[in-house]
Write a structure and sequence with these properties.
- The complex is a heterodimer of chains A (292) and B (266).
- Chain A is built from 13 helices and no strands.
- By secondary structure, chain A is mostly helical.
- In chain A, helix 10 (208-224) runs antiparallel to helix 13.
- The model of chain A has no long low-confidence stretch (mean pLDDT 78).
- In chain B, helix 3 packs parallel to helix 7 (128-153) and helix 12 (219-228) packs antiparallel against helix 13 (233-257).
- The longest helix of chain B is centred in the N-terminal third of the chain and has 34 residues, at 37-70.
- A two-stranded antiparallel sheet of chain B has the order 1-2.
- Chain B has helices at residues 2-11, 28-35, 37-70, 75-87, 90-101, 107-114, 128-153, 157-165, 170-181, 183-198, 202-207, 219-228, 233-257; strands at residues 14-17, 20-24.
- With 266 residues, chain B is mostly helical.
- Chain B is globular and about 75 Å long.
- Chain B is 71% helix and 3% strand.
- The relative contact order of chain B is 0.16.
- Classes of the chains: A mainly alpha (292), B mainly alpha (266).
């Protein structure tokens, strides 16, 4: 490239450069801040209104609460029994995570290390199974559960959630485990370790990051799912928090304060966990979906 | 996983209400599907959803990621704030958006009132679809943002330094270096956005439940209300089979159209 250099030209160039940088930087920051406020402001607005009654919200939607009024929270705990739904959600999602990690770990180990008949076929089936949305399986599974009599029990949500997350868990874990060097395994075999010991003493500890990713992904997915929960556990005593929200929507549709409180109560624990574990969560969710 | 699908498929040949006394009706459910106006509204809405998801979710994701990659301060803050809607349940966000759209005291109408404008009925038949699309798209922008941002950090800085020496400006650097190099990741995002819209249910169900007058019906909500509200198990299964076929067709079409055209760093 040919260029003529003169002092003036260079000076102009430098000036242009700085103007360009600061202007673009300004626009960039504006755009980013604008998007950030779309995610934060609605939540703050709802949080603020959760301390106020519906009439107060209608009359002055933006003013701060006069006092730290917990009436909505007390109603939420007493009338719609939000704590019970919390408990249900935690039991069902927690069990799902444990089952997924247990079976996913074993299946992942088997897929990554054993050579057996139909291995390729099973691998293909796993990939196909990943693409099937829940809508497709829900009717037959519902019928089977009715025959078994387990609709409206914890099991009715734990089983389908485990099944649908297991596929992805097996893939993630077997991918991670195939990267473990075979030498460690051979050494352990020489020392007389059994297959099961190799799995629990070597593979599980080494694959801890993959287990964490799968666990976080499964938990959030299961905790947040509304569709299967509406179908399998609509009963009040076993319903998880998402179904409860659906009910608050239809039963207390005019009570804005209570609805705001319901949103905040369900959102806060997840947000707190997110703030503490955000690195793992962001990694877990994006990796999970991209590989899946 | 596979047995239920076969069972679903078998069910489609029966007329069943409340799942008692199934009556064999051959292809009756499929004929009903073809002549059902609502399924076409739902399909059309799902396609609109898909296009909007690709354009806005992936588009905004790329835009924000490129911007965050350019700045020095506050990267982590933006990452955290952009991503957090994803960890929250669509059910709670749906309820949140219902509050924003509320006619009497919702955030949107309150803002309008501040400027002395007439309040708007946000969830009427003409706007309902857009009003359920916005939060769904908004929720997942952060997701694509993180995927693209991760891809961007893998691009070696040396490339940009060379470009700067050669006299390329910011815009040129983005279009000539960044975008071609992250094409693979954009492809993944597009496929995810498309398959994701076939699964949309929670947010739509919470905000409008498909209404008013089926104007915001998508395939998922229509299937749910057919089976679990009208109790038409056979016809619901037919819709489910329709969703699978649509999914397979759309996924293979996308793969065909945006095949492997990427640039790799050597």
């Amino acid at each position: 490239m040919k260029r003529k250099f003169s002092a003036k030209k260079i000076l102009n160039k430098i000036q242009d450069h700085f103007i360009e940088i600061s202007m673009t930087k300004f626009v960039i920051y504006m755009v980013l801040i604008a998007w950030a406020s779309t995610t934060i402001l609605p939540l703050l607005w709802v949080a603020n209104n959760s301390f106020r009654t519906t009439t107060q919200i209608v009359n002055a939607p933006f003013s701060l609460p006069d006092s730290f009024n917990l009436a909505n929270y007390i109603t939420a705990a007493e009338r719609i029994n939000i704590l019970n739904s919390y408990k249900n959600s935690l039991i069902m999602s927690g069990t799902t995570v444990l089952l997924v990690l247990l079976f996913g770990g074993m299946a992942g180990y088997a897929m990554s290390r054993f050579k057996f008949k139909f291995r390729g076929f099973i691998n293909k089936m796993i990939i196909v199974a990943l693409m099937i949305p829940a809508f497709v399986t829900v009717v037959p599974v519902y019928e089977i559960f009715i025959e078994l009599g387990i609709v409206n029990t914890y099991l009715a949500l734990i089983l389908p959630h485990t099944a649908s997350n297991l596929v992805f868990a097996t893939m993630m874990l077997s991918a991670y485990m195939s990267s473990v060097s075979t030498e460690i395994e051979e050494a352990a075999l020489l020392d007389g370790a059994t297959r099961w010991q190799i799995f629990t003493k070597i593979f599980v500890p080494i694959s801890r990051p993959a287990f964490a990713t799968v666990g976080i992904f499964t938990f959030l997915w299961s905790y947040n799912d509304l569709f299967s929960a509406l179908v399998f556990v609509p009963n009040k005593s076993v319903q998880p928090i998402t179904v409860l929200l659906n009910q608050v929507k239809s039963q207390y549709g005019t009570d804005l304060g209570l609805q705001a409180t319901a949103v905040i109560v369900t959102v806060i624990p997840v947000l707190l966990v997110y703030i503490v574990l955000q690195k793992h969560i962001i990694k877990g969710l994006t990796q999970g979906a991209v590989k899946g | 996983m596979f047995y239920p699908i076969l069972r679903s498929f078998y069910k489609t040949f029966f007329f069943t209400v409340h799942n008692i006394n199934p009556e064999y009706i051959g292809l009756g459910n499929y004929l009903k599907l073809v002549n059902d106006p609502v399924i076409w509204i739902a399909t059309k809405n799902t396609f609109i959803f898909m296009i909007a998801a690709v354009v806005f979710q992936v588009g905004l994701g790329i835009l924000l990621a490129v911007f965050v990659d350019l700045i020095r301060y506050g990267k982590n803050f933006f990452r955290t704030t952009f991503f957090f809607p994803i960890v929250l349940s669509a059910a709670s966000l749906g309820l949140l958006f219902r509050l924003l759209y509320n006619y009497n005291a919702g955030l949107l109408n309150s803002v309008l009132k501040l400027f002395n404008l007439e309040p708007i009925l946000w969830l009427d038949a003409s706007k309902a679809l857009a009003m359920v699309m916005i939060p769904t798209i908004w929720q997942y922008v952060g997701f694509y943002f993180v995927i693209i941002l991760t891809a961007l950090t893998k691009i070696p800085n040396a490339l940009y330094e060379v470009a700067e020496i050669e006299g390329a400006n910011t815009f040129q650097r983005i279009t000539k270096i960044t975008l071609p190099l992250i094409f693979q990741d954009i492809r993944v995002c597009i496929v995810l956005a498309i398959t994701g819209t076939l699964k949309v249910f929670d947010m739509v169900w919470m905000i409008t439940a498909g209404g008013p007058f089926d104007s915001s019906q998508v395939l998922g909500t229509y299937m749910y209300s057919t089976v679990f509200q009208q109790r038409l198990f056979g016809y619901g299964s037919t819709i489910a089979i329709f969703i699978i076929i649509l999914g397979v067709v759309v996924t293979s079409l996308t793969n065909k159209f945006i095949g492997n055209r990427g640039v790799t760093i050597d």
